[in-house]
Design brief:
The protein is α/β, with parallel strands linked by helices. The chain folds into two domains: about 20-245, 3-Layer(aba) Sandwich (Aspartate Aminotransferase, domain 2), CATH 3.40.640.10; about 245-375, Aspartate Aminotransferase, domain 1 (Alpha-Beta Complex), CATH 3.90.1150.10. It is built from 13 helices and eleven strands. The chain has a four-stranded mixed β-sheet with strand order 1-9-8-5, sandwiched between helices. The longest helix is centred in the middle third of the chain and has 19 residues, at about 245-265. It is globular, with a radius of gyration of 21 Å. The two termini are about 30 Å apart. It binds pyridoxal-5'-phosphate. Pyridoxal-5'-phosphate binds near residues 62, 86, 89 and 160.
Length: about 400
């Protein structure tokens, strides 16, 4: 019988914080500039060279989405977005004064498709916000091509997808703007934080202005509306230490995902996300499994809980929650959204997840769905070299 590596619970997610992170943050504390300083600009420059376009750091992914919408002139009307995702996307749209118009998703990937966008379209639509859910690249190239003929901006919600690529291009860089998030469960963390990238310099200028009370300079010159959506130098210092190692962690996540997929592939009752098309790259954010139906999913979650393992039903449809159950536009029944949200369960997944713990999680799941351990593919011993998987 497999056992976990320690007696504590196995969490869903855990950030990787090491000596270099502590040193970087402590260095800021030893100085006097705690906000609006050089670390924030340095981290922005790191992202600008990674993405090849202007970037602005803000206080969260939600703020990044809201400011992107505002910078692109969205202040009302409707915004097409999936219901299958995290509620922050809808909250940002609502805060910008618009109404989310929920489109259904691909039944296997959980992402919007061009077809689903066209089916949901309405003349009141002012923007489209596809979500690269779990790091799976949504077909934003197709959506952008269709939307640009109609002068509709596409804002990519890449909050879960730092490192993902669509047709060889970083997600977030394909639409009019893209947003990333740095909450501690993300590919890298600032504690809290968000990023807007855009090929349009004026969009990033507007985001920089609005994140800092509408300031046009470091002094007391203001040009219109603004907020405090800044980050501190402490957060930027943590980000500077993290960005050095994020690609290594993305490879480690790839490796863990491949191991889980190998364990579950022989079981017809456990689905995992499909491989992405050639030319695309998925930077895994979370690892969801999809069980036969809601009651199996809940039974598996209860078994995991009973064995000291955290899990979460990812993601319930946003349109099921107030105010979106009454204040949104749901043009169809969203059958694919319902299917995924009833059956989806995120299981422990983070770079520091030890192989014995990962195997223990897989064995509890296989046991709970009614499989016996011999049906598991043999797994390599923990000392096996950690080859990054194919994507
Ligand atoms: C898809 C998606 N959009 C937006 C957000 C919001 O990011 P934050 O929590 O940093 O505001 C998240 C964060 O979890 C997310 O997963």
């Amino acid at each position: 019988m497999l056992q976990p590596s320690s007696s504590g619970r196995i969490p869903l997610s855990r950030p990787t914080i090491e000596g270099v992170d502590r040193d970087s943050v402590l260095q800021v504390l030893e100085g006097t500039t705690l906000a609006l300083g050089p670390k924030t600009r340095e981290l922005e420059e790191r992202f600008e060279s990674r993405f090849g376009m202007p970037a602005a750091l803000v206080s969260s992914g939600t703020a990044a989405l809201y400011l992107s919408l505002r910078a692109l002139g969205v202040e009302g009307g409707e915004v097409i977005t999936p219901s299958y995702g995290f509620v922050a996307t809808a909250h940002a749209i609502a805060l910008a004064g618009a109404t989310p118009r929920f489109a259904d998703v691909h039944p296997k990937t959980g992402c919007l498709t061009l077809d689903s966008v066209i089916r949901a379209f309405h003349p009141a639509v002012r923007a489209i916000v596809p979500v690269h859910i779990f790091g799976t690249p949504a077909p934003v190239d197709e959506i952008v091509a269709w939307a640009s003929e109609r002068q509709i901006p596409v804002i990519e919600d890449a909050c879960e997808a730092l490192g993902s690529e669509r047709c060889g291009r970083s997600v977030g860089t394909i639409g009019s703007a893209g947003t990333f998030a740095f909450y501690p469960n993300k590919q890298m963390t600032l504690g809290e934080g968000g990023l807007v990238v855009s090929p349009h310099g004026e969009v990033i200028e507007a985001v920089r202005r609005m994140r800092n009370q509408g300031r046009t300079s470091t002094g007391l010159e203001f040009a219109g509306e603004g907020f405090n959506f800044r980050i501190t130098e402490l957060q930027a210092a943590l980000g500077l230490a993290q960005i050095e190692r994020v690609d290594r962690w993305i490879e480690r996540r790839d490796h863990l995902a491949a191991r889980y997929i190998a364990d579950f592939s022989a079981h017809p009752g456990i689905e995992t996300l499909p491989p992405v098309p050639a030319g695309d790259r998925r930077s895994w954010f979370a690892f969801p499994i999809f069980l036969e139906n809601r009651s199996t999913r809940d039974r598996v979650a209860a078994s995991l809980d009973g064995r000291g393992i955290d899990s979460a039903p990812y993601f319930p449809g946003i349109d099921r929650f107030p105010p979106y159950d009454s204040a949104s536009r749901v043009p169809s029944d969203l059958p694919a959204t319902r299917g995924l949200s009833d059956r989806g369960l995120a299981i422990p997944f983070f770079p520091g997840l030890a192989e014995p713990d990962r195997r223990f999680v897989a064995s509890v799941i296989l046991g709970a769905v009614g499989s016996v351990e011999p049906r598991m593919r043999p797994v390599a011993p923990p000392s096996a070299p950690s080859e990054p998987s194919s994507r």
